Amino acid sequence: MHRRIWAITKKEFIHLIRDWWLPAFMLIGGVSELLLVGWATSRPITNLPIMILDADKGYASQEVTDLLLNTGTFSLLEYVNEPEKIQTAMENGDINAAFIFPSGFSEQYTSQNQQAKLIVYLNGAESIPAMTVQRAVSGVIQEHQEDLIISQIGLSEERVSGFFPSLRVWFNEKLSEALYTTPAELGLMLEFTTLLFAALAFSRERELGTLEQLLVLPFSTFEIILGKSIPVILIGFSDFLLMLLMVNLAFDVPVRGSLVLLFILAFIYLLVELSKGMVISVVAKSQHQAFLMVLLVGMADFMFTGYAAPVESMPQILQTLANLIPAHHWMSILRGILLKNTGIEFLWPNVLAMVFLLIIIGGFSWRFVRRALD
User: What is the pTM of this model?
Assistant: First the structure.
């Protein structure tokens, strides 16, 4: 039996060698996307173009302008004199924000009876830069306002200081977004790679007209399924090792937990996704249809991984539904082992759920694929 399984496995690798662009695209494409996502999220947002309308032209408006520009978040496009230019630039997407200093700003700035107002326009069509601008402005104004109040009342900072929180960040000391996004992207790319290769196992044979030839050969259904599954597991696991090495070397994503435990659970997760891909493979009539079905399943899983939005913030019915998604449990396992040095004593609910899903999905897939082939 093992010789017949090896013959089918060898045949699959010959197919992959002839269609070398597919495994190359999946392996290199996954690594490239990880590099791009990690690079984009590990860098702070800087040099956002802004315009300034200074109707005051006093020392206070210039002082606040210097404080804002010194943050590095903004890049001054130009000073303007008409609000219409700001509106036109905002509509064209040329700027992310605009600051307007009204006339009399410096006088109100130093007065104890009046309140100076800085008008800020944000380009809400680009929400992430807009939130970055909002945080930068709030931080600068709050810090400068405290210094201004202290100077006006004539007291030292020690006399007016209240309490300061002692802040300590666990697991991601620098609060690097790359340590959140790259493990999530790694998990998603591993799912797409495994699903796609598994989905092409039988759909390729059907499209090339060789499925009937394969079925009339002296191979049992078990041998055919196992022979086609082995290359998928090997390629998927190789892709996982490559991406894990890359995120560790390129973005300093730590591996604080047990590598042995991570590899064992990664193998279980690959079996779950393999089972889903095999069902797609026998349902799809062509490789193109299989690819579209993989996108559909992958994007549905994506919503429950916590990548786009935390699962904990979703309605209760969606949180319950997330427990039926293998990728949701895999993300918790992956982040726990990589970032938190979490062991099986804390991960067992996710591991148990993933094993349960493997039994359910794998059992259904086995019966469904065997029946379809028979």
Answer: 0.79
